[in-house]
Amino acid sequence: MSDFTDLNGAEHSFGESEAQREVRANDRQYVFHSWSAQDAINPLPIAKGEGVRFWDYDGTEYLDFSSQLVNLNLGHQHPGLVAAIQEQAGRLATIQPAMANDVRGELAKRIVEHSFEGARSVFFTNGGADANEYAVRMARHHTGRQKVLARYRSYHGSTATAITLTGEPRRWANGTLDAGVVHFQGPYLYRSAFYAETPEQETERALAHLEQTIQLEGPNTIAAIILETVTGTNGVLVPPPGYLPGVRALADKYGIVIIADEVMVGFGRTGEWFAYQGFDLRPDLVTFAKGVNSGYVPLGGVVISEEIHQTFAKTPFPGGLTYSGHPLACATGVATFDIFEEERILERVNDLGSRVVEPRLRELAAKHPSVGEFRGKGLFWSLELVVDPETREPLVPFNATGEAAAPMNAVVAACKAAGLWPFVHFNRLQIAPPLIISEEDLVAGLDIIDAALDVADGYVT
Ligand code: PLP
């Protein structure tokens, strides 16, 4: 007797702890994992996923409130994405990047058509970090300048320039791999670096700080300012009104390129195709990955303005990747656009975010003293947990290695025990379910978070 039949018709059985043990044993013996001390981890074996849920080999079910790494926007095993891979694999599984191909061209066209005014072309990469590497390289060649300004509390990926751009502890152990990177503070009213008390003050002071940074570094040495439109992993930091247009004005004043890193928030997460469209920002380069095809096949890229495109019209662009514009990946990207339109994904995200999530989080913030602040947009939210609402001391202080300590682990354990796979980073419990989630599942997940916050409240002094 089988427990489930997968999309290929193959039957699988759960309840075989032996199977689960074997997967675990091979993993522990042979797989080297990211960001981890290899002997300190015990990754959960996953057998199957469907929609907003996944299961281990023993049949334990999890409701995914993290969309894996905030990439699974259309959920597991979406039939439209699976069919796109199958159809493309049957026709042309791979082709090198210097050749033209229907799905590659179609996806680039759809992306440009949904992008900022003046967008011209798309360079495809394998993921988010290399998209940022290439965006920086384009900005440097375009301007003839070397420095790049990046914000603290950002994550831009883990390749050489991308990890140096990153403004949080994951950079520490890697040192400085790109000498041209300079960090500055962005707006974050709850922990304002500028002693601001209102969003207006925060915007004004953050922009004054950025202008000072530009002047002290030398405007004619700065190629680009890179920013996550809505800072993702480091707290779903939604920019205050006027901030991003203010960055645009400074970039125009000093001839600097703006790179919007939309790897985490692009493709519907905040309720627009791209998050910058909700904040009145006109970027010059936009990096994307994750949501472009929900990660079914690795894919990322850079959307390029006409002006920067023209820099490389007669002069060759010095860079490339064997798998740039991979047909299997592009086929799933094209299917993503179709599915977004057919399933009215953006409307759903805006409706569920404003009607279900925001009011519920407001209620949780009032009920639980451990919730210092909640913030977000669309289906991307963060609960910032504190041990003391007055001092705002984080529930987990940053420790030397940036690892989460006991209190947050207890909150995570409470979520998992109740069948919810949460997205947790430092002292924040973040909410990022697949965008196809039903209202019923969304409410069920928020109920589990409500109960887990009782555990967090136990640490409040
Ligand atoms: N930029 C942002 C904002 C991200 O959140 C991430 C990954 O989480 C990256 C870049 C790196 O993307 P990748 O892991 O695909 O290299």
UniProtKB/TrEMBL annotation:
PROSITE patterns: AA_TRANSFER_CLASS_3. Residues 1-21 are annotated as: Disordered. GO terms for molecular function: transaminase activity. The keyword Transferase applies. The keyword Transferase applies. Keywords: Aminotransferase, Pyridoxal phosphate, Transferase. SUPFAM superfamilies: PLP-dependent transferases. Belongs to the class-III pyridoxal-phosphate-dependent aminotransferase family. NCBIfam families: PRK06062.1. PANTHER family: AMINOTRANSFERASE, AMINOTRANSFERASE CLASS-III. This is Aspartate aminotransferase family protein. It comes from Leucobacter rhizosphaerae. The lineage of its organism: Bacteria, Bacillati, Actinomycetota, Actinomycetes, Micrococcales.
